[in-house]
Amino acid sequence: MPLVILLLTLTISCGASFAIGLYAGVKRVWPVPQLRLLLATEGQPLVRTDKFGRLLSYPGKIEITCPIQDEKTAVLLLVGQSNAANYQGQRHQSVDNRVVNFSDGRCYRAASPLLGADGQEGETWTLLGNKLVQSGLYRTVILIPAAVGGSSVRRWAEGGDLNAMLVAVIREVKERYTITAVLLDQGATDFALGTSENRYRSDLKSMIDTVRAQGVHAPFFITRCSVGGRDWEEDNPIARAQASLADSRDAVFDGPNTDRDITALDRYDGYHFGASGQEKFVGAWIRLLRKYSGM
Fold first, then answer.
1. Beta-ladder partners of 222
2. 44-86 tens-digit pLDDT
3. pLDDT at 34 over 50
4. How far apart, in Å, are the Cα atoms of 146 and each of 55, 169, 212?
5. How confident is the model at residue 43, as a pLDDT?
6. Plot region of 116 (φ>0 → left; ψ -120 to 50 → alpha; else → beta)
7. What 8-state DSSP symbol labels residue 271?
8. CA 70 to chain CA centroid, nearest Å
9. Which of the listed residues 85, 121, 138, 246 has the most CB atoms within 10 Å of its CB?
10. What's the maximum distance between 2 C-alpha atoms anywhere in the chain?
């Protein structure tokens, strides 16, 4: 009798498991999607980061042969804090190998989150690359993120830890490519910290000088970015310092004014861009890059 009970119990258990699995497959509920994801990413590297939290590897990345740079290639160095660093609402990907994520000496088909930045969510840069290619302005766009969420300008100035990281990234890039533009989006952290106008200007100028000292003389665009913290208003020390550094003699230009043009409705948490904010951001960059593409 005990053996009969045991066999009956096993039969019922197996039948129940089969029924649950069948139901899950039909309804497309757990664990079917999770199992598919595990199978799809089997053998791929796990998330790896450097000491700054910047992504070095991420599941699903497609490594490709690095393209050769020509006159129709944009090589964009993407620097700053979270809105430059994979903290945005909408993810994007390139449909082919014309928009490239360059990181650690290797090339990947661009897709959120980008390697070289520390967040693991959405970003605008891949969308920008897609639209630059679609517009015909460039045939290939190479994206080189060097961005860390929440970073203050002091860390990017000479002597700061992110200044040293930036130098290392530029030197690595120069072994293969010539940077055609530097896109900076940073400032909200310093508004929240109460950084003075003079201090911010001095530190940001130090960062620009570092880039120039590495032989990068491409247009350097400074996004008007200071939204963050309490009591914010558009006319503030950070925004004034950013505006004051534009100098065409050194190819330093105003970037998009996200303080003015990216509204609260375009930010999913009051700061980081949602899909509508990302679209506005891209539109502004395309207008600027078209204007200065001949430099």
1. 184, 254
2. 568 999 999 999 999 999 999 999 999 999 999 999 999 999 9
3. no
4. 10, 7, 16
5. 55
6. left
7. S
8. 24
9. 85
10. 95
Q: How far apart are CA 221 and CA 234, in angstroms?
A: 19
CA-based nearest residue to 76, from 118, 123, 31, 24:
123
Q: What does the angle CA 104 – CA 110 – CA 115 come to, to the nearest 5 degrees?
A: 35
Which one, of 138, 86, 76, lies nearest residue 117 by Cα? 86
Per-residue tokens: 141:
């766009």
Q: Name beta bridge partners: 88.
A: 122
Break the chain into its structural domains and give their ranges: 2-40, 48-292
What are 198's two structure tokens?
Answer: 């003079």
- Rounded to an integer, what distance in angstroms lies between the CA atom of residue 102 and that of residue 91? 18
Whether 162 contacts 145, CB under 8 Å: no
How far is residue 21's CA from residue 30's CA, in Å, rounded to a whole number?
9
What is the rounded distance in angstroms from the CA atom of residue 255 to the CA atom of residue 53? Answer: 26
Helix (H, G, I), strand (E, B) or coil at 186: coil
pLDDT in tens, 250-285: 999 999 999 999 999 999 999 999 999 999 999 999
- 48-292 belongs to which homologous superfamily? SGNH hydrolase (3.40.50.1110)
Inter-residue contact 45 to 57 (CB < 8 Å): yes
Q: What are phi and psi of 292, to 5 degrees?
A: -110, 10
